[in-house]
Amino acid sequence: xxxxxxxxxxxxxxxxxxxxxxxxxxxxxxxxxxxxxxxxxxxxxxxxxxxxxxxxxxxxxxxxxxxxxxxxxxxxxxxxxxxxxxxxxxxxxxxxxxxxxxxxxxxxxxxxxxxxxxxxxxxxxxxxxxxxxxxxxxxxxxxxxxxxxxxxxxxxxxxxxxxxxxxxxxxxxxxxxxxxxxxxxxxxxxxxxxxxxxxxxxxxxxxxxxxxxxxxxxxxxxxxxxxxxxxxxxxxxxxxxxxxxxxxxxxxxxxxxxxxxxxxxxxxxxxxxxxxxxxxxxxxxxxxxxxxxxxxxxxxxxxxxxxxxxxxxxxxxxxxxxxxxxxxxxxxxxxxxxxxxxx
Length: 343
Known about the structure:
- By secondary structure, the chain is of the alpha+beta class.
- The protein is built from eight helices and 15 strands.
- Among the domains are: about 50-255, 3-Layer(aba) Sandwich (Glutaredoxin), CATH 3.40.30; about 300-330, no CATH class.
- A five-stranded mixed β-sheet has the order 6-5-4-9-10, sandwiched between helices. Strands 1-7-8 form a three-stranded antiparallel β-sheet.
């Protein structure tokens, strides 16, 4: 009887687990597979980029001279030339826009995090130059962004080595064309063309203003940045790097296209989760069956309440198989005594 209850309890538990797994599979299917009518929308598939993104990318133009005469406004409101930051030290260049809701913040986070582990001093050993690709942004916006990342970097005395620039479209285009940085305007949530589709990359620039090395993505190796700056300080030009653009896209320098792999990662993660849960439920189901079988085989026919009362007998005694229901055996004295039936 008890064995049967154990089996049903295990089956019920396994059934709950199976229902949970089915729910996960159903949710995964709903999240990853669109209906037939949805699949008909759009002309792109696989690795094909939407038409609006065909001009987005990074072309590595090593040894290309930056437009040092291009004029910008720094975070204090002062008009500067790009060439003002070269001549003595190498620089890290990043093209972003400060109100970017997604990728730019990740890139600037990556720069600050990597530089925390680079044992060089901004303003003394190298310069950090960030240029907004949005001509509508102001020095006030740039100053707020600089204050935020300078605080995160944790070395306020290096403020003179961080340069957050804004400028007109002509100067922005000159730098983007020289560095191979392609972007397009895209509408925001309100329908206005106030956002930008762009790639994520930083460039190491030599002391005389030539592009020496590219690092693509939003996380950067401190060791690579250190070696790149050391080489750029001697005006050495590096080699093209493996082009991996952000976490979600693969970048092919030959076709300048990105293949989205987020869906594949999610699918793989979902499959692994379901398999893991299914394996866990199977192991627990078998263990419950085995425990129930062993437990029932070792019972002596007592009811559940009677066995509970027997378990309350002093620890020094134990029940002897084959004796009457009320007989126990003293483990220490070896004598028999009556417990329940006498009296």
